[in-house]
From TrEMBL:
It is a single-pass membrane protein. Residues 137-430 form the Trichome birefringence-like C-terminal domain. This is Uncharacterized protein. GO terms for cellular component: Golgi apparatus; membrane. It comes from Carpinus fangiana.
Amino acid sequence: MKSMGVGAASPFKDQLHSLTKKLLPWTIYAIFPLAIFRLYFYPLQLPPSSTDQLPSTSSTIITSSASPTHISSSKEQERTEDTPCDYTIGKWVHDKSGPLYNGTTCGAIKDGQNCISHGRPDLDYLHWRWKPKECGLPRFEPNTFLQLISNKHIAFVGDSMARNQLESLLCMLATASVPNLVYHSEENKFRRWNFPSHNANLSVYWSPFLVKGIEKSHQGANYNKLYLDRVDERWASELNHIDMIVFSIGHWFLHPAVYFEGDSVLGCHYCPGLNHTEIGFYDVLRKSLRTTLKTITERRGSKSNGNGIDVIVTTFSPSHFEGDWDQAGACPKKKPYSEGEKQLEGMDAEMRKIAVEEVEATKENAKHFAGFRVEALDVTKLSLMRADGHPGPYMHPFPFANGVAERVQNDCVHWCLPGPVDTWNEILLQVLKKWEGPSKRGE
Ligand SMILES: *[C@@H]1O[C@H](CO)[C@@H](O)[C@H](O)[C@H]1NC(C)=O
Ligand SMILES: *[C@@H]1O[C@H](CO)[C@@H](O)[C@H](O)[C@H]1NC(C)=O
Ligand SMILES: *[C@@H]1O[C@H](CO)[C@@H](O)[C@H](O)[C@H]1NC(C)=O
């Protein structure tokens, strides 16, 4: 398994030496995703073609009233009637009550994130609650959430972080009402659940760039190809059947890639041997989000072509490697960072900022569109403080059953479920409640 990853990484290894200084924050990502991500998504299989089958949905579209709010952008801290709580500033406090669900009660947790059933011995990470400075963040209320999404279709679109968040939500909702899996594609990259109790559908769409992309493969190129001016129709063609869409992307932008715009090559990231200009990935992420949000505004931004759509962009989710990803103790923390102990900086800060800025710009442009609401779910900082929340070696079951091996794979990117991602969905619920009506403000 390991050789598969290392083999894939070798083409740009040499370049790493010279670029290490400049690209230090990138290098660990550049190596890690290649080696590991494939294992998550396609365990022991060849990568699939990028033309994975589309799920066919047929759904009812329900009107949702439009009233833009500003919730998660980090603004000046004056709290008035019109300035709802800023959930980004706060601290993790110990909480006895623990999660709503566990790996036994929820069947929807991806193996690699089911830390409890994989034998993670320390369980203190389950007992923390996010306390925003300006307000309280209520514990997740599955029944309230289900009521708010009654007769709607909520789609999570993006990479494995989108899936991580979707599975957390699914597990929490399942404590109140049992969902049925009504569709899944061959490799579970596209799935849909139905909650018969509320005629609500939750789905997940694999689309790690949101724009059209061709993922690297064993047979084809060993870099991704991104077409920055075109959305990925695997999700976008379904827009007319979606009432709320949650985007979550980021880590796949660190992979080697060649970028196209129109018919020409814009540049690349880590593409030695190809005669293209290195342009990094920040502007590329920005263009992808811009193309995505613009397309939604065009296709669904007016009442005349549907009944409106709500868009959430989950901001970048930081990883926490403290050493080699394949050595024991790659993310060894057992407690969250305390307030002020860890600053949001470097790539994490930049990736977050790009998403927040693109959301704010879209709000500005979409003012005239009655049926379009968009908000950033700004989880970067609160997640950055949860170095204790990753599976680490418990991405595999009982990794130390036969003693500590010389090499052990660690996942310090995704989050254990239950875990910190549950908090993302607690905040998401508050966003939905505020959208629902001004009377619910300030809770
Ligand atoms: C949910 O999906 C089912 C098909 O599984 C469909 O019949 C129904 O109309 C959908 N409902 C909504 C609200 O999208
Ligand atoms: C999981 O939750 C169920 C139901 O609340 C409980 O009976 C069980 O003890 C829990 N298991 C763990 C490992 O916490
Ligand atoms: C690389 O591109 C430049 C500019 O497009 C061109 O002048 C040069 O010949 C190319 N080199 C190779 C090896 O293709």
